Amino acid sequence: MNEGERRFAVFPPVFWRGGGKVEQVLTCTGLGKKFGILPALSEVSVNMYSSRLVSLTGESGSGKSVFLRLAAGVLRPTAGELTVCGELPASREAKEVTAYLPDRDILPPDMTLTELVRYYHHFCIDFDTGLAVRLLGDICADMGRRFGKYSAGMRSAIQTILVTSRRARLFLLDEPTRCLDGDGGLRGLIIGRISALAEEDSAVITADNAFLDTADDLLTLRCGTVSYYGSAAEGRYPKDETDA
Asked: CB of 76 within 8 A of CB of 90?
């Protein structure tokens, strides 16, 4: 990162999207992760803030999913430090304010949607049951049908709706529009729901190219290191060096 991008990452404006005061939600310094002797992430240092939608980009194998798993407390770093609201990601305090969506099915296939909503209501103190039921109704989901009986696209949408029905401070979403390319209406609903999260004063980090054109910030990883972090508009349309 150049000096201008570092300033952006560390010193945000006082007010942003949601209309409330911007707060630092995620901080990592010198973050690294190795699997055996192979580095997956190296020297990642960024701050992320409330009321911001961050598009996490990079080629396959660049470390996007590893970064999200570290932030969710699923993996532990081998170097550096990462905190969520000042707490380690694996702590109870951090998990209570973090909502994580992996890039695969994680819900029991034999549970009905009614049972899944009850499950989230029981285990997540910030879960908005009414919102979840309304959003599931918007995609015409049958609450009595078992999760495993739905198509891959519907399963992906259902999981995203349940995760984003929490009132979390930090949302970590790994490919939330996967399997939705063939259903424009369903895809649009999910994109709209995720975009609304930043309006609700949450920090949202999503590894999904569907948000490249609407994100506030862009974090690009290359071979496990940060190649760009800053304004998404500047990242998408970098200023020509010949312009002055």
From this structure: yes
Q: Give the whole-angstrom CA distance, residue 224 versus residue 41.
A: 4
pLDDT tens figures, 121-179: 999 999 999 999 999 999 989 999 999 999 999 999 999 999 999 999 999 999 999 88
The number of beta carbons lying within 10 Å of the beta carbon of residue 115 is 15
Domains along the sequence of the chain with CATH:
3-232 (3.40.50.300)
User: Kind and range of the H or E element at 226?
Assistant: strand 225-231
Q: Measuring CA to CA, which residue among 45, 39, 57, 21 is closest to residue 220?
A: 57
What are 158's two structure tokens? 């259902």
The overall average pLDDT reported for the chain is 88
CA–chain centroid gap for 201, Å, is: 14
CA angle 155, 158, 162 (to 5 degrees): 140
Task: Give the three-class secondary structure for 80.
Answer: strand
- How far is it, in rounded angstroms, from Cα 41 to Cα 62? 8
Q: What are phi and psi of 243, to 5 degrees?
A: -75, 140
Q: Taking a C-beta distance cutoff of 8 angstroms, is the pair 153, 192 a contact? A: no
Rounded Cα–Cα distance for residues 51 and 106 (Å): 27
What confidence tens digit (pLDDT) does each residue in 192-226 have?
A: 999 999 888 899 999 999 998 889 999 999 999 99
Token pair for 121: 């209501």
Cα–Cα distance between 89 and 167 in angstroms, integer? Answer: 17
**How much is the pTM?**
0.89
